[in-house]
Hints:
By secondary structure, chain A is of the alpha+beta class. Chain A folds into three domains: 8-116, Acyl-CoA dehydrogenase/oxidase, N-terminal domain (Butyryl-Coa Dehydrogenase, subunit A, domain 1); 125-228, Butyryl-CoA Dehydrogenase, subunit A, domain 2 (Beta Barrel), CATH 2.40.110.10; 232-356, Butyryl-CoA Dehydrogenase, subunit A, domain 3. Chain A has ten helices and nine strands. In chain A, helix 1 packs across helix 3 (69-82) and helix 7 (276-304) runs antiparallel to helix 8. Chain A starts with 7 loop residues before the first helix and ends in a 9-residue tail after the last helix. The mean pLDDT of chain A is 95. Chain B is an alpha+beta fold. Chain B is globular, with a radius of gyration of 22 Å. Classes of the chains: A alpha+beta, B alpha+beta. Chains A and B meet through helix 6, helix 7 and helix 8 of A and helix 8, helix 9 and helix 12 of B. The site of flavin-adenine dinucleotide (FAD) has 22 residues of chain B, from strand 1, strand 3 and helix 12. Flavin-adenine dinucleotide is lined by residues 93, 116-120, 125-126, 152-154, 197, 205, 364, 367-368, 370-371, 373-374, 377, 392 of chain B.
Amino acid sequence: MISFGMTEEQELVRDGMREFAADAIRPIARECDENSAIPDEFLQGIWELGLTSTQIPEQYGGGGEDRSPVTNAILLEELAHGDATLAVAALAPSAFANAVVDQGSEEQKQKYLPLFGGEKFHVGSLAVLEPRPVADAMLPRTVAEPKGGDGFVLSGVKSFVAFGDRASHFIVVARTGENVEAFVVARDASGLTISEPELNMGLKGLTTVSLELERVEVAAADRLGGEAGCDVRRLLDSSRAALCAVQVGVARAVLEYCVPYAKDRVAFDEPISKKQSIAFRLSDMHIEIEAMRLLSWKTASLLEQGIDATKAAQLARGYVAEKGLWIADNGIQVLGGHGFIREHPVEMWFRNARTLGVLEGTIGL
Amino acid sequence: MIDFTLTENDKKALARTRAEALICRKHARYYDENEAELPPEVLPETEEFEKNAEDIPAPQPGDTPGPVMMALHSIGQTWGDYSVRLRRGDGGLGNAALRAAGTPEQQEKWGGLTLAMAITEPGCGSDPSMVSTTAVLAEGSDEWVINGEKIFVTTGLRADGAVIWATIDKSAGRAGIKSFLVEKGTPGFEVSQKEKKLGIRADDTTAYVFSDCRIPRENLLGLDETIPKKSSGGFRGVMKTFNMTRPLVAALGLGLAEAALDFTREQLEDAGIEIQYGSGLGGLTAAAEKFVRLEALYEASELTTLQCVWLAGQGKPNNMESSVCKAHAGSAVRTITQGCIEILGALGISRQHLLEKWARDCRITDIYEGTGEIQRLIIARGLFDYTRADLK
Ligand SMILES: Cc1cc2nc3c(=O)[nH]c(=O)nc-3n(C[C@H](O)[C@H](O)[C@H](O)COP(=O)(O)OP(=O)(O)OC[C@H]3O[C@@H](n4cnc5c(N)ncnc54)[C@H](O)[C@@H]3O)c2cc1C
């Protein structure tokens, strides 16, 4: 039955996260961007909200609540309305944990999930992107060759791996002959070189690294899903939907900043909000934000119901990335020269939207 | 719960509409090329179809709510053809106005008629407060005397009558504008020929002239003859009709866009270009990449439309949403159909296929029921908390 109604619980989550984002995220966003660092207290604080652990089954040390990608999309939008960097940081551990919950073998669940049930911030990361032109997540250059007898040998380069400075494990997407698979690689695996933090345009507070895999050996049991393997598309669908939700939050932040600014800023004897070129631009932002949110909900909802979400995720991702960037870009324009100055957040939101638009992996629903 | 799936019942009902729409599609080209003719009230294939078609299942609890289904049926219908219907008689825009503004007795009395809606005049379109058609109570009688001219009246020929906007006091501005029901055959009510148009040519779009046309006093919808001071109360009431008609207009455009996408996909596949999902840019040809973008635009538009009617069904405010979906669809269907033509080139502009017709037909979506600009105006007022005087 087609319905656009949130459950009561989702409304509570939305309201709670909105408040949290306003109180605890927005105020420190600029500082994290300028310092290219997120304070440990923030990560620990958000960890204690249990965003990652509550949806891990009880038998693996989690809260045992149903996984709801829709609820996650709703909460991500709210966190990202505070700040995209901190929203991505908050949900990054879930990307790894959810991948294991959804697609891990029994052995992998027992081994990795309890790491996320503890009291201290813990993170594992997805390594999907590769540093080359027209990189396509489903056509990775990183390869996993079967090792004589048992296991695989991984070689290649991955980039934009979130929290590479502290992740205990990485889920690395690689090609095995015709197939694309994912492998769990421990941080201390021999042959794995973790780079210094990358220097990126946006999401600057988030430490990302490149991984160089030089004949890294993993056991057969380290293939995500074990013998059965996994569906990398599903990993990507989930990450695309999550990135969409973040973009919606950023776009809303832009619009909500521009509205009072335009009403206040006077040029040629009247507020610029009374000029249609400005007013209609903001209307378009509103129109697109509604559309972006619904596309991201639809993907999340299909994922939630176990229905193939690949098409929805692709449509949503392309649309949301494009419009999200358009909104952030025009946010600068509405503020004119002031939009270019770091005293206002719109230039940061533009850099973040630009960055989000090219990511794959990183987070998931 | 947020959910985008259809139940089996929903699917059956929609499949029937689409089967019907495909029959209408067979006649689409004919009525496009022979504009002066009106499609018949009942198509020749109707009986055969109705005999063989499965019964429409009665909606069950748990099925998709009525207003959402209504929008999906509208999409399904224009996916076949915009104006050719298997069987006519589903009323006109004026019927929606009667339901919104008429008293129960008025609804009872005229509900069975097909009613056009006549607001637009030669000198007034986007700004309906400039309506200059007048309604004056004739002294010593219980009749309104109507004078003025209306243009671009959809269903103007077929309709049994029309809901028209006229002012009872020009000096009162918008507050003086009221809706009246005028039945065909009333002396002084003259109907002109079908307009010649870019698209939706099977539709009968006409002009009405009222010269000392006398109608009973009770033909004022809502029967409220007072002119509200300061507020534009009554006017706003009539404008509310649009909160339901705008998403439906969006839906009508979307059906055409969907038909264009389906046709384009088939043609691409015949040419060996498969549309695959899940890859990034690396895995797609330029044509496929463009096509996928158009599909995304469609999906976005459909979702905003369905959300708007869903809200209406829940009795929740949907003023902003109705402008959002109308504005979105108005521009999306243009981009989609024109984009499909660009992908298919000569096939796209050939009158042997319907794509060029769909591109012409759907061009109306961004014009009637408030142009895209007017929708943006309404949205901007909402965002800034502005009145009409603040932003126009
Ligand atoms: C096929 C067809 C069917 C129709 N059916 C009906 C019907 O059944 N009943 C009925 O009453 N009418 C009907 N209409 C009329 C339709 O609603 C009007 O044409 C439409 O509202 C635009 O009005 P207009 O044509 O006078 O354009 P104008 O109002 O003259 O507008 C011209 C341009 O100026 C722009 N513009 C106007 N005001 C503003 C503003 N404030 N800010 C920015 N831009 C602005 C418009 O967006 C447009 O681009 C129909 C029209 C057509 C073509």
